[in-house]
Design goal:
The chain has four helices and three strands; from the N terminus they run H-H-E-E-E-H-H. It is α+β, with helices and mostly antiparallel strands and 139 residues long. It has a domain at 37-133: 2-Layer Sandwich (Zincin-like), CATH 3.30.2010. Strands 1-3-2 form a three-stranded mixed β-sheet.
Length: 139
């Protein structure tokens, strides 16, 4: 009687080191991706504002989308929008990154540009001027 051929899994065991791991790690599986740099800046800014304005922004949530929905009557591309009923700000990554004029293209300038729009959106959400959201601004 002959032996059955080894299973494919056993055939992948090379030099006694065990079966190879998948090419892509678990980080790239659905729903478990790391935040992009843009999203990290948005998250940090929202956390900062929530800590500074705990009563007004206790329910604050944020969403990052690539681009706003296209409408026929719009004359300019939106950078953000609001969902007041759920206390959510929606930031549109591509218009912020590509359509906003910036003299410098370094990390600090990019961060400040993203933070600017987060402050603008949060200010509109709670009916405050974005400059009033900065703590101790007048010191």
């Amino acid at each position: 009687m002959s032996k059955p051929p080894p299973s494919r899994a056993l055939a992948r065991d090379r030099h006694g080191r065990g079966i190879r791991r998948p090419l892509l790690s678990k980080l790239f599986s659905h729903g478990q991706t790391r935040l992009s740099g843009f999203e990290q800046i948005v998250a940090a800014t929202c956390e900062f504002l929530s800590a500074e304005w705990p009563q007004e922004l206790a329910e604050l949530s944020w969403v990052v989308r690539d681009a706003p929905p296209v409408s026929q009557d719009s004359s300019r591309v939106r950078r953000w929008s609001l969902r007041r009923e759920s206390h959510t700000i929606v930031l549109y990554r591509l218009p912020i990154e590509r359509f906003t004029r910036n003299r410098k293209n370094d990390a600090l300038s990019n961060r400040m540009r993203i933070e600017h729009y987060v402050f603008e959106a949060v200010g509109a959400l709670i009916d405050k001027d974005p400059w009033d959201l900065i703590p101790d601004r007048h010191r």
